[in-house]
């Protein structure tokens, strides 16, 4: 078996596999456009006797971690022919891709799982979730008079991007979007937008929405101030003669909109969303800012990562007075470590999706009370979200 990037002339083989695996068909002008936009350099395939048996896309992306952009390898389009399944092709592809990301300096990787247990075996773990609301128009937030204005379908991309980046940087794991991403993945001809401007003319929030079957379908509701939130909801409420209600998608899990409604009894759903894994533990830890300490402190940490041997094993984890940290390789067994966990648990721990105490309570993190308190003290509170899909 050979694992390599695809060639330009393998467009048809790649598309045919995707069409079969994901049950769709591209024809005519759309197929010609897809061929023109084909990027073989981001596609990796497993070949047997020169025939493509499995493939995935590796997207070079960036995500916000602690307010700063970090390189991330986004895995998408994992597919294989049914006659090639359960033969280890995808497993070998994922292992190879981990090595590729590590060599490229991508310390994180995200993917949207078709089956969560499958990807957990390879070290990915659920790192965020989102809410979905369905709100009848008679339960919308009350209209209020606010100082500022809302303008519809008139803002430039740079305005939306400026507000989005400030909002997204408050979370761990949100995507840093470039213009191509905005144009190809976020906006389309059917999407309306409205922007809230303060009295000084500063954009402080926006909504991306469509009107479908007498309903406001809200793709993104982004705001930097309570004034902007109220102003945008007043604008949406002014559609009350046109609609029966609104649905909000991919709402961050820390959102408290129902509590703020006159009647909070609305339909609410919660969905586990993307999975993440740290590709290189040492690089990630040394780029992370921990809570400051009174003195240099260290613990021994055992990371279980059978898919990435450069992570697997015993480490000396040191945190300095200013919150910088280092991981240094040690010789030793798991039984000698102060702390131990899988790479998936380590990922959600540092991203802030779960706290040390709850992970230890359910056996995901092994630590005695003193070491657990140390973790609670050094790891800052964080919150995770993702507003995109790939």
Biggest sheet: strands, sense, closure? 8 strands, mixed
Q: What is the share of helical residues?
A: 25-40%
Overall pLDDT metric: 97
Treating each run of at least 4 consecutive H or I residues as one helix, how many helices?
Answer: 12
- Spatial gap, N to C terminus: 27 Å
Total beta strands: 20
Please tell me how large the radius of gyration is: 23 Å
How big a fraction of the residues is strand?
25-35%
Question: Pairing-aware structural class of the strands and helices?
Answer: alpha+beta
In one word, what is the shape? globular
Question: How does this structure look, described?
Answer:
The protein has 390 residues and is α+β, with helices and mostly antiparallel strands. 28% of the residues lie in helices and 33% in strands. Strands 1, 2, 3, 4, 5, 6, 9 and 15 form an eight-stranded mixed sheet that branches. A seven-stranded mixed sheet has the order 8-10-11-12-13-7-14, with helices on both faces. It has a five-stranded mixed sheet with strand order 18-17-16-19-20. The radius of gyration is 23 Å and the shape is globular. The two termini are 27 Å apart.
In a few lines, what is going on in this structure?
The chain is of the alpha+beta class. The protein contains twelve helices and 20 strands.
Name the descriptors.
390 residues, alpha+beta, 8-stranded mixed β-sheet, 7-stranded mixed β-sheet
SSE order and pairing:
Blueprint (H helix, E strand, L loop, with lengths): L1 E4 L5 H12 L5 H9 L6 E6 L2 E15 L2 E13 L8 H16 L3 E4 L4 H5 L4 E2 L2 E8 L12 E4 L4 H12 L5 E2 L3 H8 L5 E6 L5 E10 L2 E9 L2 H12 L7 E8 L4 H4 L6 E6 L2 E4 L2 H6 L10 E8 L8 E7 L5 E5 L9 E4 H9 L4 H6 L3 E3 L1 H10 L12
Parallel strand pairs: 4-5, 12-13, 16-19
Antiparallel strand pairs: 1-2, 2-3, 3-4, 3-9, 5-15, 6-15, 7-13, 7-14, 8-10, 10-11, 11-12, 16-17, 17-18, 19-20
